Amino acid sequence: MAIISDFQEDENKPDPKKNPSASASSSSPSSAKTSSFSATLDPSNPLGFLEKAFEFVAKESDFLTKDAAEKQIVAAMRAAKEKSSNTKKQPQPQSPHQEEVKAKKMKEEKKEEEKFEDLPTMKVQKAPPPEPQLDANGNPARGCLCVAMISMSGCVLACIIDPETSPNKGNGLDLENYSWTQILQEVTVSVPVPAGTKSRFVLCEIKKNHLKVGLKGQPPIIDGELHMAVKPDDCYWSIEDQKTVSILLTKQNQMEWWKCLIKGGPEIDTQKVEPENSKLSDLDPETRSTVEKMMFDQRQKSMGLPTSDEMQKQEILKKFMAEHPEMDFSRAKIS
Fold first, then answer.
1. What letter would DSSP give residue 64?
2. Tally of CB atoms within 10 A around 226
3. pTM higher than 0.90, yes or no?
4. Which of 66, 147, 154, 297 has its CA 20 to 30 A from that of 329?
5. Which domain of life is it from (predicted)?
C-alpha cells in the first residue's frame, strides 16, 4: 500500500512581517491556488488510484479540458514506464562473496559440460525395411521385423523382433535402446543413457500423441507418434542413478492395453497380458470388474470360445426360444 499526499500552502506560507513583498504577492488574484490530495494505492487495482487522481484534477483545475492534456498524460506515462524499465535493467551490485560463489558455480558447470562432451555418443540409425515374406498362398507371412540399429560403443546391433510377440513381465516390451511396461492406467518407459548423465543433458518432450526422448545435441532415441493418447499434464520424467531416463505416461483411455509404444514399432500380443493379482486388489470394484471381464474375454478368444457378451446374448436367445416354442429359430443368428 502506498499513500501520496500534498500539503496545503499554509504550511509553507511566508511570514508577512519578515517579507512584506512576498505577502502581497501571495494575496494577489493572479497567484496559483494549491489544494491537498490524498489517496491510497492498492497494488491489485492501480486504475482505481488513477481514476481518483484524474477526478481530483478535473475538479480543481481546467487541465483536462485542454487539447494537449491527453498527449501530456501519455508522455508522462511513457517517461515513468521507461524510467521503471531502466531501473529494473540495472544490475544489482554484488558483494565479493556473491561474485566468488557465482564464479565457482560457472566453473563447476563448465566442468560438467566437459564431462558431457566426453560421454560416448549414442548413434541411432534406422535399418532398411526387410523384404516381405509370402506364404504358400502368396499372402504376407508372419515373419520377423528389423526395427532399428543402435551403436553404444562402436558396435552396431540389430534389433530383430516378431511383429506380435509375448509381452515382458511388465506387460510391455524390451528393446535394444529402451523398454516399456504398462498397467491399465499408465505406461512406464525406461531409456538407458551413458553413466554420469545429468538431467539438464536430457531432452524429453511429452505431448498428447507424441513422445521424443534423447540427449541434447544427439539424434533422438525415441521420436514418434504414441500408440494411444496420453494426458500430458499427468506425465513426468526423471533420471535414475544418472544412467536411466524413466518416463511415466498416464493413459487417456485407462480401460485398454497398449500393443506397442510407438506406432509402427514392434507389437505385443495383448491377449497374453497378465496383470498381477495384487494390482487387481488395489483397484476399485467397478474397474476391477471391467479388468476381470477383459481377461476372461481374452482367454475365451484364445480358446475359440464365445466372450462374455456373446454368452449373454446366447442366454437371452435361449430364454426367448423357451418362451415362444411356436416360433422357428432354425435360421436365427447372434450378431
1. G
2. 22
3. no
4. 297
5. Eukaryota
